[in-house]
Amino acid sequence: MKKLLIIVSVAFLLFSCGELPGKYHVRYYGNGANSGYPPNDNTDYESGAFATVLGKNTLKKTGFTFNGWNTRQDYSGERYKEGDKIEIKNFNVFLHAVWE
Fold first, then answer.
1. By the 8 A CB rule, do 27 and 93 touch?
2. Fewer CB within 10 Å, N or C, the chain?
3. Taking CA 21 as the corner, what is the angle to CA 27 and CA 96, rounded to the nearest 5 degrees?
């Protein structure tokens, strides 16, 4: 009975978070933008697939120019520009706007 409860609990957590096992996503964040919205990629990717990096959509940050995306909010990660390809591994990809 304990095993069934654990399995049901894990399944509930996965589905309530909107994540499916073996399906990964690319999420975009404004990283200090003061207006607009980041792009939205609703694709469910499998490990080994490639995602195309999207543009800034309507994001704006007063006094700054959008200059691509980075896997880390502090810009210390991998940098990407619109149209680049990202290989999806066994995890979701989070991209933060780069402002200069």
1. yes
2. N
3. 15
